[in-house]
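Many introductory courses stop at the sequence. We go one step further.
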Amino acid sequence: MENNVSVAAVRDAFTTVASYATAHAGFPVVLEKCGVVQGIVVSRFAVDGYELEFNMTLTSDAGSVARVLAIHADWKAGDIRAGLDVADLWNTWWNVCNGDDAELDGTSVELIEAKLEEVQEHVIAGVEADAEFASDLFKLAEVLRGYREHVEAATPAEFGQIMQGMVETALVSENGTWFVETEDFVGEGAWHPEAWSEFLEDLTELRERFGAAMVDNLIAVVPGFDPTGEATWPADGIAATFYGDFLKLFDTADLEA
């Protein structure tokens, strides 16, 4: 693989951006295809059900993917809008409805009048679909332009005691999975009383930044757990599970230095 970037890392960056876009754009953005051909990433997204394909230079940097996708979405939306001439369509229909003698693409007005309703429904549906797609693309571009500032500036220090503690533990541990246990809230050195509610707020923040689907696959929480109520404690004593890739949610450069 060129530049020592793996296909898995490339796909991870594209998937991260798609998850973020879905969380913020208000419609699904799904990565349908992602491959590498001679140092170029060939991708296809489903944007609210519509297909959007674009290529870019090989990268595993999600911020770069977001920036290029935003530019491409903006361009594609403008191209679609430029091709929509609704006024011309309505003028044509008006002329046909009023019996003008002009011919349209070699077809007589009489024949068009016979199928006018069918033609109108077909063209209007096409115009509306294109207009909706263009609107989605403009929204997607707007969302992605704020990606780097909104996501990549995140550091563990922005979050609470539990999140910071789990990041620090994972950085020095060779394990692939880490746990918040019920006993962590009891005795000397326990998490402070507000740590769990603070942690749940941190999760909400991460979901807003990266998308719920991505975050919930990396950090699993036992529903209803309350460290102050032993009746809510899970039988296995595990309140939350952090999986190895959760560190990708954070900028840990300062902690690793």
